[in-house]
Amino acid sequence: MRRNNWTKYAQVLLAAISILLVALAANAHTLAQQEWMLQIEGIPISRQLYSYFVAQALAEVERDANGVPLDMEELRTRAAAQAIAFVALNSEMHNQGISLEPYMRAMIAQRTALLWRTFGNYYTRLGIDKETVAQVQNSIAAQDRLFRALYDTNGLREVPEESLESFFYGNFAAIDGLRLPLRVIEDDGSERAMTQTERGILVDTMRAMAVEANREGGPPLFILAQEELFATTMGYAMPIGMVLRRDLDLTSADFDRVMVLNTEQVTVLELDNEVIVAHGVDMRASKEEFYYMYRAYCLRTMMLPAFEADLQLLFAQFTADENVAAIESLLNGWNFSFGFRGVAEE
Length: 346
What we know:
This protein is of the alpha+beta class. 52% of the residues lie in helices and 13% in strands. The protein contains 13 helices and nine strands. The chain has helices at residues 9-21, 47-58, 72-96, 102-125, 130-151, 161-171, 196-214, 221-224, 228-231, 252-258, 291-315, 324-332, 336-339; strands at residues 36-40, 43-46, 172-181, 183-185, 191-193, 240-245, 267-270, 274-280, 320-322. A hairpin with a 5-residue loop joins β4 and β5 (191-193). The longest helix is centred in the N-terminal third of the chain and has 25 residues, at 72-96.
């Protein structure tokens, strides 16, 4: 396994110079043709691209009632940080000798087309063209590609498959049944907690349904849920298969009870805020349906903190030099009442 070289400044700088000649050639117009706003290790950031980063940064800073940032220096700092990330990610892609897969390029094209259909007028009013939007989408995809190049199969810091499986089966549980909140929706749409009497009726009804389902030759939950006796009490909810996550869908303590549900019999679990009537599902018997469906999610959940730390080390190797006069001219003419909306919704 090769040692990660993100902290080798000389190599990163050489890669940045290569990017100037190759990956960002379309954006790095000659200074005579287009005014640059920033230079990142000598790589010019065009007015269009910088405008995009400003529009993004506006969603992150405090503004007054007219949309004007309370701290213009913070706005410029955040825009510069986004420009650094843009150059650094593309540079590291070149440095690592990896590229976007065809399916990723197709997704970028689709995403760009959607954004342009939705926000095209907004971008145009900010002086941003479709090519610039596509370049940013490429950079976003590059971050995902670098993540996988580090931690996925054959990556520089490949996470063993056994570790991924252990994480998945320890933090995901599949059930087939119903989750019924211990809440009542009033006629006016408001909600309240069930009274002890209402809660007792619901739990007793669910237990009666479980008894019927577990009887030899008894009907499945899907059929029982349609019987008037049970349907009215549980609000005509229908059983479904579901995958639950520890600390997200259930508290860790409740999850521990759910993950050991019998796969052959229906069980009623009375939790603090809901009642579950279901049988467990053996996810190991259907890895394609369960494990492989959530494998990428598990990898990202496990390794994202380390990846973000790596990114900060990478970004720290790059500095931004401002074309102060050009930036102040751009911001002085910016219509903040218009230009702080839209892009953040991406």
